[in-house]
Fold this sequence. Notes:
Layout: H1 8-22, E1 43-44, E2 52-53, E3 58-59, E4 83-84, H2 90-97, H3 104-114, E5 119-127, E6 130-141, E7 146-152, H4 156-163, E8 166-176, E9 182-196, H5 203-210, H6 217-223, E10 224-238, E11 249-253
Amino acid sequence: xxxxxxxxxxxxxxxxxxxxxxxxxxxxxxxDERGPEDGVEFGFDPLDMGEIVTGPALNGDExxxxxxxxxxxxMTCGECHEVNFDAMTSATRQIxxxxxxxxxxEIWALIVDYVPGAQIFVLATSNDDEPVATPVxxxxxxxxxxxxxxxxxxxxKLHHLRANPAISAVRxxxxxxxxxxxxxxxxxxxxxxxVIPGTDSRYAAYFRAYNPLxxxxxxxxxxxxxxxxxxxxxxxxxxxxxxxxxxxxxIWRREQSEAN
Length: 260
């Protein structure tokens, strides 16, 4: 890991996203268009819940065809196919290509609803090949489309952020009703951080946007730095959306013209 790279867990998160969205072939090649009459059978046989039939190898930029064989909920591409993909690029393409995509405005509205007030995120930072994951209270500044945190001066994460502003952060929820399936929702963001000290002319404006109840502006400026996280990309995920084929994964991307 270099100090200019994303924290390592971002790549792992992308792999996890790819595995969850695929189904046994959420990607599919032209071979998938052939049916049993062509002597090719693969995927999940709904009449035999225990049988998996090997399918053709897939590339990471292929998309599941409309004639793909039925498969059981929760199966992954790798159970029937050998899949070759790059964790950081192709996995993200799979999310976009195999989901019902909302507009950027609709996705942003989902993100705003998911972060009401201060919420605990896990923030990943890295410097000199030393990654650190830290729980932080983040507040979404809806107008500037940035996340804000207050941090005591001298902490390790501030040292990291000054040396390497590249960040990843995630907030997630998971629950299960009785013995049913697990429900899962999360937002994952990656972007850049800026440490704003109390002497910065912007400090008061960001402090008011954070709106802490337990400390005054004067006291905060003397002991706390504000961390501003500017996401360039946010992945929103909610498994409940899959029940209505609404696209479990949605990706919001910052426009270059958007000020923060």
